[in-house]
Structures are given as C-alpha cells and as structure tokens.
Amino acid sequence: MAKTLRSYIIITFVVCCVSFAILVTSISTTSWVTAKLIGLGDAKYEINYGLFLGTLTDEFFLTPKLYTIELACITSENVCAWSCKPTADERQQDVNLLYYDVEEAIDGCGVSALSKSHLGRMREEWDDTTEPSSSSTVDTIEYKPDKRFVNLGVWGATCTSLVISIILSGIGAVGAVVNTAANPVHTIAAVPGLYLWNGLAAFFGTLALILWGSLYAAILRENVAVHQTITGECKGISSLGFSF
C-alpha cells in the first residue's frame, strides 16, 4: 500500500520535517512573550522571554543595559517568576521574596535597583504628578504590588506537550522515510502509523498553544511575571512573540 501512496508519503515527510524545525525553533527561542514596561520616574524596560530564558533591557541609562532573565520556581506553591539575578540561588531568593514578602523584594537588576525608601518617594511623586492618558500603554497607572505569577503546572505542561510533539514529529519523519523505501509489515510502522504519529504530534502541539495562550490571557498580558511588575515598579501590556 505504501508504494501506491509514495507521493503522499513524501509530502508527509516534508510536513514532518517542517513541523519539527518549527517546534524546535519555538521551544529554543526567547520570543514567546514581549513587553515594554514603563514605571516610576524614567524607568523603562523591554522584556523578551521564551519558556526557559529571556532578556530584560533597562532603558533608563543613555546606554541601555541588557540582562539575562531566567525562570525560578517555588514548587510547593506552584508558582514561578522571571529574575535577572546572576546566580540560581539569588534568583530563587528573589522569587521567594516576591511571593512571601513582596515589600522587601526591591533589589531589581544591578545598579538600577531602587531602595525601599527611594521607591516609596518615587511612588508618591508619581501619584501626585502623573495623570493617565489615552495614549499610554497602561490602562490604569496604579503602581502597587501585583502578585501574579507563572503557574508552574501550566508552564510544565506546555513544555512537556511541546517536547512530545517534537518527538512525534521526528518519529513521523522517520516513518515516512521507511514507508517510502519499503512496505512495513507492522501496522504501527506502516501508513496507519503515520496517521497516528502525525495526529498525536498535532494534538500535543495544539495543546501547548492552548495552555500557553490561556496563561497569557489570564496573567501574562498585564503582568509578565518579572520582578519589576510584581513589585509594582512598572506596568505595561505585553504581546505574544514570534516563538509562540
């Protein structure tokens, strides 16, 4: 049967290879979520992150400073957040403070950090002098802690679904090559198996989109779960990037 469907199998091979490449690019790049944040005083940040790594650009200085951000989680609370701290221990401590004692989590990134008293004074000055405008990227300027985090379960399920989809796409591509060269005896390795592998790959890929899309709509659109948005230093509306 495979011989009579050779042209369709070749098309299937191409589709599997393209899907595999897209999925690998998606999971390995850092543009799942992008955002421009504005904050107290002249604070401005640009955020880009993927499922594991990202970048935070501090535009307060004449020469913008670029930081790498990584996800740190509190497994017992099922929450994660992005931190620009240089070591894993510091990132974990940062997220612990953000979750358990957000008023003390005021270090930010490097030299652009705000001291607690300085942050309080800037908030008061901002409230006294700033009026929201229709052109602002923020619907309501209200700088106070916003303790919304990345859901660890949803993030983990998204990553797992993508990995499974990548594996199944690879199996589908190999199966297409086998069916082009021969007529496998076992059903799972023959043309019906191609339907199975590709169908499951499409299912798990779609599931990943639904999971991350739901997380974005519920939380990440208004709070990208970085130090600056959780503490209330900055706000901004994010968008989904090309990796998604």
TrEMBL record:
The Gene Ontology biological process terms listed for this entry are: sensory perception of sound
GO CC terms of this entry: membrane
Q: How does it sit in the membrane?
A: Multi-pass membrane protein
Keyword field: Membrane, Transmembrane, Transmembrane helix
User: Source organism's superkingdom?
Assistant: Eukaryota
Could you tell me where this protein is found in the cell? Membrane
The membrane-spanning stretches of this chain are 6-27, 152-174, 194-219
InterPro entries with a match to the protein in the record: Clarin (IPR026748)
Family assignment from sequence similarity: Belongs to the clarin family.
Designated name of the protein: Uncharacterized protein
